[in-house]
Amino acid sequence: MNNIKNIFSIKDLENLSGIKAHTIRIWEKRYEILEPMRTDTNIRYYNTENLQKLLNITLLHNHGYKISKISKFPKDKISEIVKEISNPKNANNHAISNFKLAMIEFNQKLFFTTYDELLKEKTFSEVFYEVFVPLISEIGMLWQTGTISPAHEHFISYLIKQKILINTEKVQIQEPIFNDKTFVLYLPENEIHELGLMFLNYEIQNKGYKTIYLGESVPLENLIDVKKYFSNITYICYMTVEPNVDKIDEYLSEIEKISDADNNFLLLGRMAQSISKEKLSNNISVYSNIAELTNSL
Fold first, then answer.
1. If phi over 0 gives left and psi between -120 and 50 gives alpha, with beta otherwise, what is residue 61?
2. Can you give the pTM of this predicted structure?
């Protein structure tokens, strides 16, 4: 039985398009841009076709088209104009809309065709920073508001991970250009949000450095083991939800025992931003985001 979500409330449309529900209602009443269905109790609901049309209308509206003009376009004309809008910003927005549709419909083909179109004009790094990062941010909001389920989030995250792994493999087969240091990348215990760390691993290898990727939920004693095999290690820890704010100081104390003249720590992620820099030793640094860290190498 196919239970893919294909019915949306007006609040879902607001969350997915960024257009306020009040505005959507005005557009419906004044310009008849959508054709909502109604329950027996007269509550609006919408299908996937309505959602796709609204996403396209939103793109045109943000590009300067007046809603009064858009409302007079035939359906095919709206899609045609969307395809003609080719400047990078709008191409990114269109791709994000397509990825959201792919997620809602569990549509792998739409994900792959959208991704392939982006690669015709962009590098993989540009796709990640310009499209995947804002997409991931939106997904977090959509999950919190109940517009999508955890299954939707896992589906799209897996496809993004797949692309990171494919591109990482391409650079892994090359010999490192710089052999003066080794980067060890890991997530702290109970941390499973891996996308940012995976991309960081790709970026560092793409710059010609050697990396050791340990992945999610790594106990600190495992880091000590790595010291037996490599010298001049830079550990990179991505903290999204772990350790908790009330345990950050304790965690810093533990990694200070591992850091020394030959081993330093770079920290980033949402939880790392709560760290007071006055508490950091000379061998521990905090970065705001992936780009800031990679640009410092």
1. alpha
2. 0.81
